[in-house]
Specification:
The structure is a homotrimer of 137-residue chains. With 137 residues, chain A is α/β, with parallel strands linked by helices. Chain A is 28% helix and 26% strand. A 4-stranded mixed beta sheet of chain A has the order 2-1-4-5, with helices on one face. In chain A, β4, α2 and β5 (105-112) form a beta-alpha-beta unit. The first copy, chain A, is globular. Chains in contact: A-B, A-C, B-C. Chain A binds chain B through residues 1, 3, 5, 15, 18-19, 22, 26, 36, 38-46, 73, 110, 112, 115-124, 126-127, 131-132, and chain B through 7, 45, 47, 50-55, 57-61, 63, 67, 69, 71, 80, 83-84, 87-92, 102-111.
């Protein structure tokens, strides 16, 4: 259940671009961490001009007005290679599908154990693990 | 200071239901982790249709339009049994008090040490710990 | 790339106060953790009355209507002394620059490794570390 939260500037993305961004995050996750495409948990928040401060160039970056902060929460079993791939593909597909620039996506990855997640029904993923072999793939 | 953040679809919950959701999270925490009822730190964010993508059925779930993502940050001392109880009660009380369905609440739990929290006054909880015996109960 | 997210009550802060809050967080970070002033990644979210529940007095606090929840994500190398300083300065400067009261800021600190962050360009900070000696200062 890797879960994304993208923070973007208000009135900077069209509805189509926001949906494209969600598709980009979904596809990047699928390819980097081998999750099913249905494992799609993505939320986006818009912030007004006086609520959004992402430095345009620090450090040695060229961010556009479409710069954003993306957080993703994944299981602790993910390897550095998977995270490297995720960072690479999130940017690649967001450039393709949401019109952002190469340096626009700042990413934070939070790793938590399966006992700290629930897909629903009031049950922890760790307790339901046996029937979900793909959880940690 | 366990702190909840619920992400819901815009225009899907009445004001009364949002308040009921907060009450549900508060009560679930109290019963699962033995916190005082006054230990109530809950925020809710609404997301528009093009900002909210929670899969309706993955994996083997039947989520309604009232599906949501809830995050909660707690101290690292919480046991698996407490987390299991929290997941169970969050759903049970949200069904009762906010009209959600059984599979609607996806939950992520972030565990952080007391030195990473402050209730206010610019002081870490770990530095004030002796006067707050209930912090880790 | 320490990143702040402040959750405030809607219609409680002027635009000038929100900008002052961002400046306060930026300056507190700079002084507590020796980051460059350009290392400025701050987002603010407003919550309506039925989406914002921060207890006004628990525990032994006197919070105003300007009370807020602030989260900050930093690298795992930060010391307790740095966190203590950060909590102290965040409150001090927010009182000065955003008109909040002494007890108004509840803080949660999330610590993640450098391999879990990207400034942009699809690269993890850990992979780019050598050219950014200030990252962990």
């Amino acid at each position: 259940m890797p879960t994304f939260h993208a923070h973007i500037a208000a009135q900077t993305f069209s509805s189509e671009e926001k949906r494209g961004l969600a598709d980009a995050l979904n596809l990047a996750l699928h390819e980097a961490m081998d999750t099913p495409m249905e494992d799609r948990f993505i939320i986006i928040t818009e912030h007004k001009e006086d609520e959004f401060f992402i430095h345009p160039t620090f450090p040695e970056m060229k961010r556009s007005e479409k710069r954003m902060l993306v957080t993703v929460t994944t299981g602790i079993s993910r390897t550095v290679e998977q995270k490297r791939k995720l960072a690479e593909l999130v940017t690649r597909y967001a450039v393709e599908k949401a019109g952002v620039s190469q340096d626009d996506i700042s990413l934070l990855i939070y790793a938590i154990p399966l006992e700290n997640m629930s897909f629903g029904a009031g049950k922890l993923v760790s307790d339901a693990e046996l029937s979900m072999p793909w959880v940690n793939k």
